[in-house]
Amino acid sequence: MFPRGEIILGVRDIHVSFGTAHILRGLDLDVRAGEILGFVGGSGTGKSVLMRAVLGLAQKQQGSIKLLGQDYDSADETTRNTMDQRLGVLFQHGALFSSLTVRENIQVPMREYHSLSQKLMDELAALKMDLVGLAAHAADRYPSQLSGGMVKRAALARALALDPDLVFLDEPTSGLDPIGAADFDELISSLRDTLGLTVFMVTHDLDSIHAVCDRVAVLRDGKVLVAGSVDEVSSVEDEWIQSYFRGKRARS
Measuring CA to CA, which of 15, 120, 196, 233 is 20 to 30 A from 214? Predict the structure, then answer.
């Protein structure tokens, strides 16, 4: 595991554009090992774009990404492969393969990066399911047979398949009822403490931010406007921040 408190992800001067639309404009951000960082901003401002740029799923036009203490862009293919295995991702809607069972979905990263026996992969998948609170009988179900909460948990189990250091969560509580969302928040916090994970969480859920985030970073106009504890960020005199943290739907 990466040493706690050190910068596990550092992005500098990141620019991402799609055609003439400039989404990220010189963004800087540090994520520290062992923390849960909430990444917030208005709808359509590019919260998920940064995550996808770090993962190589969206092309950046400028900037550098230092991941796990190494410059990702200058790393050779073998090093990148090793770095990729230390990352886990839960996409907003789970992104499970519809033609695969829960067990098979969890085993996808194992098959991609390792040559393991089927017996061992089955045992590992069962362990990951137990870790995220999925009953054993769900292993043979397909995504279409799962509830929204079960899809999230199955996707999280897949994200944890290779025992990552850093996990990216894209709107992990979206689509869940308040009880399910609170349970998922508790699960994320527990996994961080138990496994020593670092969590980068794109979210708009104020309850999640207050419940689990050690720090919050606010995206505004393509850059990080401010980063700090919830109390520090929510006290910043900015119209959007005050509306978000202290508006009509804020916690009383």
Answer: 15
